[in-house]
Every structure is written in C-alpha cells, then in structure tokens.
C-alpha cells in the first residue's frame, strides 16, 4: 500500500440501485435575529417581522459597545440572550428522505425548536451538534420554522473572546433513510495497515441488503 493515501470515497451501494451519500446544503442565509428574550418565540405563529434579517455566521457581542465594567477576558463586550428564526419550505419529493440540521457551533447554552417542537438543548459553545428534523417537517407550500434561543448571560465565561450567537456555519443535511450518519466513519492506522469502521443507520421500515465499498487512492491516482 502506498505510504501517502487519501480516503476518496465510502459509499453504500443499495441492491435497489440507489446510490447513497450525504447531501449537505449551506443553511446560513435569511435568518431573523433579535438580541432580546421575547416570550413564545419558539412558536411557529410568533410574529418576527420586526426582527433583523441577517446571514450566518453571526456574533452579536462584537456589535455591542465596549464597557470597561465587563470582563477583560471576553474583550469588554456584552453578552445576554438572543433568538434566531428561519422560515423555509421543502418540496414533496423529499418527504421520504432523512433530513437533519447540523450546527458547527453556537455560543452558548442553546435550545432548538422546529415547528414548535423542542429538538434539544446544547450547553457547550464549541462542540458541533445535529438534530433530526424528519418527524416534524412540513412539505410542499406549508412553511417550516426553525427557532434557536441562545443564552450567553454569563459574561466572564471564557479565557478568550468567544463571541455570542450562531457563530459558525449551519447545514441542512438530506440523505436516504439508509445512510452513514454524521461521524459514522472511524479510521485508525498501525504501520502500513488501516482499519475502517463504518456505522450504517437504517431508518426504513424494513431491512435492506447493502454492500459497503471503500476506495483508497494515493497522490498518483489519475
């Protein structure tokens, strides 16, 4: 085996002839934002027309005034609580797919809702995370509302400036219900040998025979 190799592709080949693979779409544009904590902002019927429209990534602390009374470790900038909301639609052709949202980072203590359903909470401001949207989605002309509450009430909460808000990219991920989940490939090497562990997740209603194919390539591969 060549010393320098790259993992080119790990694909699932379905016996039905459907090729699997994750399709990630950048989900950063046209979010609504308010640096406040209004009651009921997770509701799909909440009126957010007065909120700012912005694109992610976004940091509301850097927009605030410097104040020497605040913490030096976080650049003397304000913290507080903020909300983000995004409205989107999906075609009916996707109603049999697995659809999730992936956040690269939200600082910090965030809660995420879809169409009024709480998907989960995340205390860490540095770790990425993902939520399955599939059970609560609308398709066709019916809108979907993602709402994110970010609580950075603590000011001196870090040894360096962390910012506040959805400060990294967000992706909408669409796959077959039979798929490799996020971080589902684990690779280890020992000398000239390589071991690849692959997790396959089947969210279909029945079992499906599959073949997992791994292709390795080196720098000379045409």
Please tally the helical runs, counting DSSP H or I stretches of 4 or more residues: 0
Q: CATH architecture of the largest domain, please?
A: Sandwich
Largest sheet, described in full? 6 strands, antiparallel
- Strand arrangement, major sheet: 4-3-5-10-7-8
- Briefly note the structural class of the backbone: mainly beta
Low-confidence stretches: 1-21
- Taken from the alpha-carbon principal axes, the silhouette is flat
Order of helices and strands: EEEEEEEEEEEEEEEE
**Helix content bin:** under 10%
- As for the number of domains, it is 2
- The CATH topology name of the largest domain reads Jelly Rolls
User: What's the CATH H-level homologous superfamily of the largest domain?
Assistant: Galactose-binding domain-like
Approximately what portion of the residues adopt beta-strand conformation? Answer: 35-45%
The value of Rg in angstroms is 21 Å
What's the average pLDDT? 85
What does this structure look like?
The chain is mostly beta strands and 222 residues long. The protein folds into two domains: 5-20 and 179-218, no CATH class; 23-175, Jelly Rolls (Sandwich), CATH 2.60.120. Helices cover 0% and strands 41% of the residues. It is built from no helices and 16 strands. The protein has strands spanning 5-14, 23-26, 31-34, 52-54, 80-88, 98-103, 110-114, 117-122, 129-132, 144-152, 170-175, 178-179, 185-190, 193-198, 201-202, 210-218. The chain has a six-stranded antiparallel β-sheet, with no helix packed on it. Strands 2-11-6-9 form a four-stranded antiparallel β-sheet, with no helix packed on it. β7 and β8 form a beta hairpin. The radius of gyration is 21 Å and the shape is flat.
């Amino acid at each position: 085996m060549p010393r320098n190799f790259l993992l080119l592709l790990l694909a699932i080949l379905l016996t039905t002839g459907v090729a699997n693979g994750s399709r990630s779409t950048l989900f950063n544009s046209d979010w609504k934002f308010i640096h406040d904590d209004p009651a009921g902002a997770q509701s799909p019927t909440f009126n957010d027309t007065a909120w700012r429209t912005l694109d992610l990534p976004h940091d509301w602390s850097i927009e605030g005034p410097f104040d020497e009374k605040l913490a030096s470790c976080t650049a003397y900038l304000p913290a507080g609580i903020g909300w983000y909301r995004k409205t989107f639609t999906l075609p009916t052709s996707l109603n049999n797919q697995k659809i999730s949202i992936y956040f690269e980072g939200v600082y910090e203590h965030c809660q995420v809702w879809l169409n009024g359903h709480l998907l989960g909470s995340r205390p860490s401001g540095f770790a990425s995370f993902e939520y399955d949207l599939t059970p609560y989605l609308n398709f066709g002309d019916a809108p979907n509302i993602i709402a994110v509450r970010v609580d950075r009430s603590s000011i001196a909460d870090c040894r360096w400036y962390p910012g506040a808000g959805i400060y990294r990219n967000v992706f909408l991920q669409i796959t077959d219900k039979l798929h490799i989940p996020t971080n589902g490939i684990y690779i280890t090497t020992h000398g000239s040998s390589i071991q690849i562990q692959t997790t396959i997740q089947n969210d279909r209603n029945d079992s499906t025979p599959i073949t997992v194919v791994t292709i390795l390539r080196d720098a000379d591969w045409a």
